[in-house]
Amino acid sequence: MTDYGILGNLLLIYTVSIAVVFLFHQFRLPSIAGFLVAGALIGPHGLNLISDIETVQVLAEIGIVLLLFTIGIEFSLKHLASLRRLLLIAAPIQVGGVIAIALAGGLLAGLPAPQAIFWGFLLSLSSTAIVLKALAASDDSDSPHGRATIGILVFQDLAVVPMILLTPILASPSDGALSSVLFTLGKSILVVGCIVAGAWFAVPRLLEHIVRSRSRELFLLTVIVMCLGIAWLTSLGGLSLALGAFIAGLIISESEYSHQAIAEVLPFRDSFNSLFFVSIGILMDWRILLEYPMVVIGLLIFVLLVKFVTGATAVLAVSMPPRSAVMTGIALAQVGEFSFILAQVGQDDNLLSGAPYQIFLAVSVCSMIITPFLMQLSPHIGRRVEAIQRLRHWFPRQTTAHVLEAEGRHLRIKDHVIIVGYGLNGRNLARVLGETEVPYIALDLDGDTVRREAAHGLPLYYGDATNPNVLRHVKIENARVLVVAISDPFMARRAVQVARSLNPKIHIVVRTRYLRELEELHQLGADDVVPEEFETSIEIFALVLRTYNMPQDFVMRKAEQVRREGYALLRRSELPELAHHLRGGTLTDVEVETCRIEEHSPAVGQTLLQLALRPKTGASIIALTRGGVTESNPSEKTRLFAGDIVVLLGSRDEIQRAMGFILASEPEA
User: Fold this and answer.
1) pTM of the predicted protein model
2) What is the C-alpha to C-alpha distance for residues 395 and 326, in angstroms, rounded to an integer?
3) Distance CA 604, CA 397 (A)
4) % helix, strand, coil for the chain, step of 5
């Protein structure tokens, strides 16, 4: 008769997990904590309802393999290269610092050195699953502290491999063991190199043929086989399945099919990953909390503090601001899922067993449970830390006016634009301002980008816009506009607040992701807020209309109409006099638009009288900007030159006729 025991165990696990996680959700507790509690309830130390724990652990390991596979897809080699300072400097400091402190603490507690080092291995790793989920929920994955946290987590995941290889040496140190490990490591590197080289050549071509079949099922099966196959081949070389899966993800990430691959694998990853946390709860004996309460609490506090300090110090070492360092340290403060795998290896080698093993599980699970709550508090803690003036003396290089001054000279500029964030939005704005000869200064916290762009003569400096000293250095009191174009919501809000306090008259434009952030940004002092959600919706309907061959001018008019009507509701203030006239209908058809005189324009070299724009089009030129200086009501004798910007007043049709005339390649007869 067929044994359906594993099916019954899975049904029981998922049924209990649904009930417990739903209950946790009602109290806004993290779902991972619910899975851990569900495992404890049905495990041998609870109701003892699970009969085949080993099979559950195998399925749980598949969840970890799929987790590392998706991480590998999301972090391409190009992305990893951008994190090289974190991977080569910050991450080794964090991992090495935890191991060193654990060694010192273990020796003081009377542990043998090998066991103390092994405890350092266990405690140095953080939870990739929990932290990535928390960062994604708060939209912080692309923020400075999010990138720092992810970079260190990737290093930790890679560091598991040498830790597993070194564990037998710690258990029985000898020259033979060391040479054996070195031989295994060399063989592993060779095997992995061959696998990566072969896969790099074969995988893109194979996926291309699979995609041509237009079969979603075939594509999914191929991706799963690649993930498990490369992981299995890597394990034959002496490395872990998880590392093999990570390598498989990196290989697929370089193809154009990576997004579809991760979309197909995500449901399987989440299902199996929940099994992993349930399996940890099954293994844990919750009675250890009653038997050794002070030991568990004391060790938990010790772990949180040590990991916070080492994580924050590591980030400060790469010249990131204290707020980012604090938030990164908090995010890394827990013990990770790979520590459980490493602990099982230590159990086999008698480095960890009995009560110490259960104490480790209790401390790790408790640290995981409180991590989401600590990460929710981290922005407020970071703000408090940044406000403490003493930190400016402890870390002057990172916290005072940390701006690279060209040859040590002070900036002399006024009536300029300050751009906060030199990403895609910041670069595009800087390019346009440069072309229109509008003076600007840009700030960014990516030291590599700053050095590279500054070498080309761009006015880009390293600086934290939430620091008043930095904003004073870029002469915010003389600036006309501040544009906040960063992806960190907390930094954006803080920058707006600080800038408004330093210059009440400055015009502040903020880029944000979601409409829900508008109100708070306006209250903090932003004049205009550009939500990406809103602009994306405009671009979507414009693309749809173009697909139906709608005229280009019609599409543009609709986009302008939606943008104008929408932002009228989103802006911080509208002139009440203008709003009154608009509602009354006296200015219903009147609009104001700007137009730049290009070199090929028929208006170049003509005076306003010769141009005769109003008799020809009905629109009037009410102002002219040249060289950054604006002249209102220019004289009819004013001659126009390439690069001038004219301000047009008239109805929509009149302005369109005027712009068509000014921008025409040949003058009208």
Assistant:
1) 0.64
2) 13
3) 51
4) 65, 10, 25
Q: How many CB atoms lie within 10 A of CB 158?
A: 13
> What is d(CA 412, CA 305) in angstroms, rounded to the nearest whole number?
45
Q: Mind listing the pLDDT tens digit for each residue in 84-143?
A: 788 888 999 999 999 999 999 989 988 888 899 999 999 999 988 788 777 877 767 777
Could you tell me which residue, 193 or 335, shows the higher pLDDT? 335
Which amino acid, 439?
A: P
CATH architecture assigned to 5-387: Up-down Bundle (1.20)
CATH topology (fold) of 586-663: Alpha-Beta Plaits (3.30.70)
Q: Helices marked H in 284-321 — which ranges?
A: 288-291, 293-316
Amino acid at 637: K
Domain ranges of the chain: 5-387, 400-547, 586-663
Sorting pLDDT into bands at 50, 70 and 90, what band is 487?
Answer: confident
Alpha-carbon separation of residue 363 from 41, 60, 90, 340, 637 (angstroms): 18, 20, 25, 12, 81
Residue 405 has pLDDT above 60, yes or no: no
DSSP-derived secondary structure letter, 408: G
Q: Position 478: which residue type?
A: N
**Where is 616: in which H helix or E strand?**
helix 613-617
Sole residue written with tokens 């509701």: 569
Architecture of domain 400-547: 3-Layer(aba) Sandwich (3.40)
Long-range contacts at 630-639 (CB < 8 A, ≥ 24 apart): 634/608, 635/608, 636/607, 636/608, 636/609, 637/607, 637/608, 637/609, 638/607, 638/608, 639/605, 639/606, 639/607
For the segment 621-665, what is each residue's pLDDT rounded down to a tens digit? Answer: 888 888 767 777 788 888 998 888 888 888 878 888 888 888 764
Mean confidence (pLDDT) of the chain: 78
Lowest average pLDDT, out of 90-99, 295-304, 351-360, goes to 351-360
Q: Say what angle helices 31-42 and 128-137 make with each other, to 10 degrees.
A: 140
Structure tokens at 100: 């060193």
pLDDT digits (tens, 9 = 90+) for 306-316: 999 999 999 98
Helices 322-331 and 128-137 pack at an angle, to 10 degrees, of 130
Report the phi/psi class of residue 231: left, alpha or beta, with left for phi > 0 and alpha for psi in -120 to 50.
Answer: alpha
Chain centroid offset of residue 247 CA: 21
- Say which DSSP state 86 is in: I
Q: What is the DSSP string of 502-519?
A: H-TT-EEEEEES-GGGHH
